[in-house]
Amino acid sequence: MSVYGLLFDYEYCTNCGSCQVSCQEEHDYPVGKTGIKVFTDGPWKIDDEFWNFNHWPIVTDLCDLCADRTAEGREPICVHHCLSNIITYGTVEELSKELEVKPKQFLVIPQFNPNATRGEFVSRGSRHVSAAADVQGTGAATYATHRHDTKIGELDENEGTIF
Ligand code: SF4
Ligand code: SF4
Question: Which architecture does CATH list for 4-154?
Answer without folding.
Answer: 2-Layer Sandwich (3.30)
